[in-house]
Amino acid sequence: MTIFSGRFVVPLLAALPLVPPISASAAALPHPMSEDVARTALDGLTVAERGTLDGYSHDRFMPEWAPQWGMCDTREIVLNRDGESVERDGSCRVVAGTWYSQYDGKVLTSEAKIDVDHLVPLANAWRSGANTWSDARRQAFANDLTRPELITVSATVNIAKGGSTPVTWRPPLTGFWCTYARSWITVKRHYALRITKEEKAALIEMLGTCPD
Question: Cα angle at 27 between 152 and 125, to 5 degrees?
């Protein structure tokens, strides 16, 4: 049996994510730049005052998760990538699995208690330069599976984070700060997004937690 998805004809079995389930660890996140490269990249980012939210809408980035492979959308791909023993129904919806929330250390076995977080929040991206992008570029940012922008975390910690930057919010697990800062810088450099001076100082502090 086959299904049709955009330009491709995909066998139904191939509609499952191409990335197999792996152990839940920092390795599950697409690799951010190293600490040394991150420090250099951070110095190269444009520092400016925080922009406004005038005209911002979540729908300008993602009216919904984008389709990826077969019947699987971005969220399902990330849940499969970050989880262990993930099970899906015939529509690729995740129905079971185990996830480790790297922000707060919670082990979760209910799909209802997990979220896929945008590490650099959509609202912050808007304030940092995405307000000038096309909607297509914003949607590509919101569904980026190549950079370390999407990560499975507990719903409670995701709500606590909201649209915050490292100035006002950091993962409760300080052991993840190094990866978080390197990931933040990786995303901002790739998309040429601005940072504030307070944001830069916070990122430098977090990079200070990286192992020698």
Answer: 50
Q: What is the C-alpha separation between 126 and 130, in angstroms, rounded?
A: 4
pLDDT in tens, the chain (212 residues): 333 333 333 333 333 333 333 334 455 789 999 999 999 999 999 999 999 999 999 999 999 999 998 889 999 999 999 999 999 999 999 999 999 999 999 999 998 899 999 999 999 999 999 999 999 999 999 999 999 999 999 999 999 999 999 999 999 999 999 999 999 999 999 999 999 999 999 999 999 999 98
Of 152, 167, 161, 166, nearest in space to 108 by CA: 152
Q: How many CB atoms lie within 10 A of CB 111?
A: 16
Q: Where are the alpha helices (DSSP H) in 103-212?
A: 122-127, 135-142, 155-161, 177-190, 197-207
pTM of the model: 0.87
Contact 17, 75 (CB under 8 A): no
